[in-house]
Structures are given as structure tokens and as C-alpha cells.
């Protein structure tokens, strides 16, 4: 069902401009390359619009936000909208401080995002200012389960209608929705939460996928979520053989992304639509 | 002797706010996770106090210091003191420039640190402005040996009394002391000096350990030093089997931290108190 | 032919001051260590001259450039010139934005570089403002091949004469030239382009090599290019045995650098001079 998505990435090698945090930026660059794209990180207000203008997608990630990069995100986002470029938003820790909250709302107001990707707490916070976020992880009470799955899907569809963005909510079960259709994705592995940056890496890969598939934002986003989760599973399988820890796992995750192809995604993807 | 320290970390999952350098920040985040904590890196003056307020510990690391983050460190440190949060100080390259020297002294003056962790040159510099630092490594003439061990321990105890902080001096032999008691730790491996960031990672792990054990700062700090050194030994053992180099070693170090438990620390810890 | 170059690095442990991008900075620090040097990253205008003054070499890398670090690069570069320190310039994405272009030309004007290292698009851009750069990779039409090798070597020699810098042009075939002599280096592996930072790492290693061999800038630069390429080959050989992906490859590359010695370089180096 995701036919052509990965092939388009590997053939087109989309240039992905990411304004992202310095904690996981190297992993983001390496996983964009592994996914088939080409990363460029530039965050100075004097050049972000130039860089966005030559790119195929823009990723805005609020981790380690500062006053300087906040302005750069706004400028790059507007430029991307002007150029008709897909823009992915990762509102890392959106509710963790007044500063992030303010920028998150301002970005939502001034930029038309193609995809908004976050954990349930971050997305709820964006949608209504009512989520709680403890640091950068989702709160226990917010989590998506089999029981509340349909309800969260409806919420995601609703938020998608309001924003005009595909909404990707990550967790044990991931949800990716536009106003009409929701994918529930059951790929992934708990080990992914024991290393830093899997969320940022997913946003980066999503940038790569939508950059090469600008006409299929929902499908490309769902493929990215599915693919990242599948890589997490495959990496864990290999990790078990190697008796490795979290350091090794981080490396294997990027390994798997560098090998991922359409057939693997077709066979290993676990999702349903409704 | 370190009973409960690691268990408390794994049970409480302390949120560790780190304002740290961009060279080793990813390793710091990953090793905080590996140790059982949850990392959050935020350095903008507009949000550091919000982030500190929801955290269990604060780590201030002076590597790649700049004017902007210097102010953020001061603000976050004061907030942590106000909230009664443990604060770990890693005065990376304290004597390498007038700028770092000035901030180091200002931080010492204005923030009450729970733990000050550095190599002997950095700590001597803080204590008396008399150490020499060539870059970020300790100077040969300063090194802690079996011969000067007791003398350095007395110096550490004295400096601890003056500052009210636990003093952790890293080297071939590590010393961790408060005003009354010193641990001499003989864990560790020379290979740890061949990769960047082992010092920063130790400060990060210390943040995680004291964050979950705020009533046992000395013991938690000594456990962190011991544990980090033990991981360095175990990683080297595995490295030899794999015939790997320094790239592999860095990964294995985080692997070992992700596996470390109380029993391993009890069996592998090499320390004496005096 | 590169006798003593690596030995001098391992014996002298040159302190390498790098003002470089936050995407690949950790890899740069680790590969400087692996090569036998000691890295120090400092980019604040208040301390860069202090840090440069105690260093053996300075590396300026324009990736993730900003207004603040641009000024620091200029100040550090001038200080290095004043102290007679070798300075390596890596004009990452020089033509990608007006901002980078302006700084690149200003640096060329105000700093005397020992080595300028870039892909053919970046170097052409510096030389004449006529190269095209799409992001941070070389453009297809610019690439160095067996057919245009002599022509590019003449261009490099000419540019070296104008700038007084050794010119290192990286690609499938690398060229390293001063005004009189050019090395064509055929080491390296295509896999190196599938991870981020191999170019930055080469600049970092070059800093380490010229820092310990300030009287042999051309030879040290060629040895660095040769050595880095050889590590890329050896890492690929090991990768094939491990059935790894790009994550593993990045680690193995640093592993190989940590093992590289004169004999390996003598036996594995593939280059000719003309």
C-alpha cells in the first residue's frame, strides 16, 4: 500500500532542510541519508530562506530552541510555504515551558504545516493547551491504547481538519491521520524509548519521505512512521543476537533504515486504516 | 555499600536538566537514559528556569560555553538552589581561557553546587586559581598517584568544606570527597581517555544518580564514579573480543551503562574510604 | 613517502582548536583523538583567541554557521596567523547561501590558510564564484574524473599559488596540491558519502596532521586525505563481514582511524604525484 514512496525517496534524493536541536542532530542527518535523502542543517536567520529555497522539504524541531533559532524557524517556514515545500513540525516538549508554548502556537498560526508529529501529550497540548508534558516524554494518563484508539483517531482527524496538516501521534500504537482517514500503526519496539532522538529521527525521515512524495503527504507520513517502527523491530532482533545495549541499538536503528526498501515495508508494516 | 542508589534511579527515572556542550551532548543524553534517568537539554534564558523547576537535577557543563548559555547557567543554577534541586558542576577547561575562568568563579560564588566534578587541573584551578590546564585534559604534573593520594584527598575534603559541595576528582585514581570522608576509586580504563566525552558523561550520570538520591549526595556521586569506571572496564573487555577501535568503544560504554545494576556495581566496584 | 607524518602526530598529540558545525562535531572530536591529536571546541568571541593561542592548529568549518560564530572564526583565524599556527578551512556549502558566500570570501581575504579543503563545487566557488552547489554535496557536472584530472590539478595548483594555501579537493579521486606539486589520491569508498561528516572529519584530521607537522603542510595534508580514504576502505571491508549498514560504518571509520599507522598508510596509500 506504500508502493513507490520509498522508491521515490531513493530516486529523487530530496534535500531536507532541518532546523533542529543539537542533541540529536547528527542522528537526524545520518538517518535522512540512510532513508535516501540528503540533509542540510542551517539555522541562521541570514541564510535559512536561501537554504529552504533550494530544498525539497523543511523540518522544524523545537528541541533546544532558542530566541535566535525561533526567528529562523518562522522565516524558513514562511519561505517553505511560499515555495510550496512540505513542512514537518516536531513540537518537542511543547508544554514544558512558556517559551516553547508561545513559539509552538505562533508557528501553528503563521506556518501551514504538511505534517505535525509528536507524542500524544505534545499534540494534545497543541490542540487545546490541555495536555500535560513532563519533560519531553508523554504522560502516562495520555497514552494511546486499544481502548481509546478510535477516540484518539477522531481527535487526530478533527485536529487535522482544523490545521490542514497530517497529524502523526507516536506511542505504543501510532496514529497518522488527515481529516478523512487514519492509519493505526503497530510497528515499533519499546527499546526505541531507551535512546534519545527516535522521535526527532522520525520527523527527519518524514521530511525525507514527504520531500520526495509531495503529492501523497498522508501516505508518505504513514510510511515513515511504519518504516521507522519496523527498523526499530529489526534493530532489536539484531541487538538480541549481539547481546548489545542501548549504544548498539542506536547504531543498528540507523543500519536498518539504510537497508529499508519497499518489499521489507510491505511485508513488515503492521497497520490498519479507518 | 552503594545499595539502593541504582535501584532508586531506575525506579524514579529522574528528569535531568543539562546545560552542556554541543560536542558530547548526544552521548550525555544517551547515557542519562542508559543510567535510568530522563534527559532534557534546554539552554535558552527564556525557558531554563521553567525546565529546571520540573527537573530532579541540574547539570552545568562549561564546554563550548558562550555568552548566552553563561547567563542561562546562572539563572538555572539559582532556580535549582531555590527549588532545593541537586546541581552538578563540570568546569570543563576552567583555566583554558579568561572567559571560562570568570564564569567558573562566578558560578562558584552564586550557585550552591551539590557536586563539583573535574580533573585535578580543573579542580585545583577552581580551588586556588593555581592549576595549569592545557586544553581540556589534566596536566601531567598534577596527576593523582598512589604517592600523593592522601594529600589530594585532604585537599578535596578541604575544598568540600569551603564550598559545601561534594568534590569528585577524576583521573587514573578518582577521588570523591565531602568534608569528612573520601572515596578513592580504582575503576576505569585508559581507553576512556581516547574518546571524547567520558568526563561529560560522568557528570551527566552523576546528575541522574543524585537526582534520584538527593539525600545521599556523597554516596550517589561515588557510585556514579565507580559505575562509570566499571562500565569503562567492561566495555574494554568486550572491545578486546570484538577487536574494535575507539568508535566501537564509545558505543560499548553506553551499552554497559544501560546494563549496570546494583549487583554488578557491588562486585566490580573498587574503592576504599578514608 | 609519508614517513614520520603519523608518528609525529602520535608523539606530539597536537591540540586542535575547531570551530565547526554542531551536526558532526562529535565525530570530529572523536576522529581527532583517534588520529592522535587532542580536540578542543570553543566558539565564543570572548575566548577563541585564548584557545587558539594554546593550540597547535585551527580548523574553521562553515557548516551551521551563524553570525556569532562567523565573528569568532575571523578572530581565531587572525590569532592563528599571528601565532604562526596552521589553519585549515572547510568551506562547507560555500555557495549555498549569500551569507556563507560572503563569509567565505571574507575569510579568504583576511586569513592566510594553510589548507583549503572542499569538494570540487566548493573549491570552484571559492576560486571564481562560478561553481554551483546544491546543498553540501558536489554537483554532478563538476566531478573529478580520469579525463579531467590533469586539468583540475592545474586549476588546484593555480588556486594554490593565488592563495598560498594547499588545496585539497575531495571526490572519487582526491587532489591535493600546492603551487608546484599535486597528489592524486585514489583511496576512499563510495560508502563514505552515505554518512554525514566524512568531509568534516577529514578537515579535522588534516588539522591534527598539519598541527604536528607544520613544516610539511602539503605532505601532511596528502597523508590525511590518503589516510582518511584508506580508513574508509578498511571500514567497508569490516562492514561487509558484519553485514552492517551506515550506522555501523560510521563507527568503523573512527575505529580504523584509531588504528592507522605509518606502515598501513605506506602499504594501503594509493596516490601519484605530478
UniProtKB/TrEMBL annotation, chains A, B, C:
State which pathway it belongs to.
Cofactor biosynthesis; thiamine diphosphate biosynthesis; 4-methyl-5-(2-phosphoethyl)-thiazole from 5-(2-hydroxyethyl)-4-methylthiazole: step 1/1
Top EC class, one word? transferase
Record protein name field = Hydroxyethylthiazole kinase
Q: Which organism is it from?
A: Lacrimispora xylanisolvens
Record's catalysed reaction(s)? 5-(2-hydroxyethyl)-4-methylthiazole + ATP = 4-methyl-5-(2-phosphooxyethyl)-thiazole + ADP + H(+)
Spell out where the chain crosses the membrane: none
The EC designation for this entry is: 2.7.1.50
Superkingdom: Bacteria
Family assignment?
A: Belongs to the Thz kinase family.
Question: Main role?
Answer: Catalyzes the phosphorylation of the hydroxyl group of 4-methyl-5-beta-hydroxyethylthiazole (THZ).
- Tell me one GO biological process term: thiamine biosynthetic process
**Cofactor field:** Mg(2+)
CDD domains reported for this sequence: THZ_kinase
What are the entry keywords?
Answer: ATP-binding, Kinase, Magnesium, Metal-binding, Nucleotide-binding, Thiamine biosynthesis, Transferase
Quick one: which residues bind ATP? 117, 170
Amino acid at each position: 500500500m506504500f508502493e513507490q514512496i520509498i522508491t521515490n525517496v531513493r530516486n529523487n534524493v530530496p534535500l531536507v532542510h532541518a532546523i533542529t536541536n543539537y542533541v540529536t542532530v547528527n542522528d537526524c542527518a545520518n538517518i535522512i541519508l540512510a532513508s535516501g535523502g540528503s540533509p542540510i542543517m542551517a539555522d541562521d536567520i541570514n541564510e535559512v530562506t536561501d537554504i529552504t529555497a533550494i530544498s525539497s522539504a523543511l523540518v522544524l524541531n523545537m528541541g533546544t530552541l532558542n530566541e535566535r533559532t525561533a526567528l529562523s524557524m518562522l522565516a524558513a517556514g514562511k519561505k517553505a510555504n511560499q515555495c510550496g515545500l512540505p513542512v514537518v513540525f516536531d513540537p518537542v516538549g511543547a508544554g514544558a515551558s512558556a517559551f516553547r508554548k508561545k513559539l509552538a502556537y505562533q508557528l501553528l498560526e503563521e506556518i501551514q504545516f504538511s505534517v505535525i508529529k509528536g507524542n500524544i501529550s505534545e499534540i494534545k497540548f497543541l490542540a487545546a493547551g490541555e495536555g500535560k508534558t513532563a519533560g519531553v516524554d508523554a504522560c502516562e494518563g495520555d497514552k494511546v491504547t486499544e481502548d481509546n484508539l478510535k477516540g484518539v483517531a477522531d481527535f487526530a482527524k478533527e485536529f487535522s481538519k482544523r490545521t490542514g496538516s497530517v497529524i502523526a501521534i507516536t506511542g505504543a500504537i501510532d496514529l497518522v491521520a488527515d481529516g478523512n482517514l487514519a492509519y493505526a500503526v503497530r510497528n515499533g519496539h519499546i527499546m526505541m524509548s531507551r535512546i534519545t532522538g527516535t522521535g526527532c529521527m522520525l520527523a527527519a525521515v518524514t521530511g525525507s519521505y514527504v520531500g520526495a512524495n509531495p503529492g501523497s503527504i498522508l501516505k508518505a507520513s504513514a510510511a515513515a512512521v511504519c518504516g521507522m517502527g519496523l527498523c526499530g523491530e529489526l534493530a532489536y532482533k539484531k541487538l538480541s543476537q549481539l547481546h548489545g545495549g542501548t549504544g548498539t541499538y542506536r547504531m543498528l536503528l540507523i543500519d536498518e533504515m539504510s537497508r529499508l526498501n519497499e518489499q521489507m515495508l510491505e511485508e513488515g508494516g503492521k497497520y490498519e486504516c479507518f
